[in-house]
Amino acid sequence: MTEKDIFQNKNYLRDQQYKDSSNLDARANLHRLYSTSPLEWHRWVFAQLDLQPGMTVLECGCGPGWLWRNNLDQIPENCQITLSDFSDGMVAEAAAALADTGHDFRFQTVNIEAIPFADDSFDIVVANHMLYHVPNLAAGLAEVRRVLKENGRFYTATNGADHMRELKELALQFAPESTQFEWPQLTFRLENGRSLLSPPFAHIDLLPYEDSLEVTEVEPLMAYIQSMTLLQVIGRAEETASPERTEGTVAILNQLRAYLTQEIAKNGSFHITKNSGLFTAY
Ligand SMILES: C[S@@+](CC[C@H](N)C(=O)[O-])C[C@H]1O[C@@H](n2cnc3c(N)ncnc32)[C@H](O)[C@@H]1O
């Protein structure tokens, strides 16, 4: 698989990487366990939305619905919230988790490049950590602008170029053939998001999320690595979709596990840089 396929091949993303939340969950688990920020990511994002009673909201690329599941106690009255994703599995998980919560949640399988809702439908559209998966970003952003009301706001989170940079260093150290592959650069990232959002938006703000990871156990980090990053950069993305590992991959993972165990024993933790933030566009 090429670098572009890793991040933007619709079949790989929808039918393997995001067919359900297991890969995403392995990565989220590392953040849940070892983030140094006092405010959990989805709680922080929700606090920025300034959601008011009666608002209509669309989330694109909702995954298993964590933004809402982690903030049920904060949702104002009478909001109508549509959760959408192009993976049926993700939509089903979000729907199962948010049934019977007393809020007006709706669920639909939607590709952001062709949103099946009328113009001027939503006060808020959210698309977190997903625009870098969209091959026709201009079409996706035009669709978001179209379904937003005149004074509506678009919130979109992404990462900066050096987010989790220690994983790149590990890949280069333990999988030398990964140098044959360009380290995947997100197409929509903190550094270029402002220019990509304008047009269609006139005003764009960026709020950084201050955080890092201090990882004190090896296995959650190994699970993260196997969910995407390292397997992808060494050209073995297919192996993220199954528990089967080729001999070469097993050897690399064993060396990596031994190294990380040693580092954590020596230093008390393994430090990982984070660089994420939230754009508001209107
Ligand atoms: C990294 S996950 C983020 C999930 C969620 N927004 C969050 O922040 O927890 C990316 C999600 O975007 C979805 N996705 C990718 N491309 C998409 C597209 N073109 N249209 C809609 N959803 C898409 C994937 O299926 C996946 O659930």
CATH architecture of the domain at 3-161 and 185-212 and 274-281: 3-Layer(aba) Sandwich
The spatial strand order of the largest sheet comes to 3-2-1-4-5-9-6
CATH superfamily of the domain at 3-161 and 185-212 and 274-281: Vaccinia Virus protein VP39
**Overall form:** globular
Biggest β-sheet description:
7 strands, mixed
* Contiguous uncertain segments of 5+ residues: none
What does the average pLDDT come to? 91
Report the order of strands and helices: HHHHEHEHEEHEHHEEHHHEE
Strand content: 15-25%
CATH class wording of the domain at 3-161 and 185-212 and 274-281: Alpha Beta
What name does the CATH topology of the domain at 3-161 and 185-212 and 274-281 carry? Rossmann fold
| Secondary-structure content class | alpha/beta
Counting DSSP E segments of at least 2 residues, the number of strands comes to: 9
- Give the N-terminus to C-terminus distance in angstroms: 36 Å
Structure commentary:
The protein is an alpha/beta fold and 282 residues long. The chain has a domain of 195 residues: Vaccinia Virus protein VP39 (Rossmann fold). 40% of the residues lie in helices and 19% in strands. A seven-stranded mixed sheet has the order 3-2-1-4-5-9-6. A two-stranded antiparallel sheet has the order 7-8. Strand 2, helix 6 and strand 3 form a beta-alpha-beta unit. Helix 3 packs antiparallel against helix 10. The longest helix is centred in the last third of the chain and has 21 residues. The protein is globular and about 55 Å long. The two termini are 36 Å apart. The site of S-adenosylmethionine (SAM) has 20 residues, from loops.
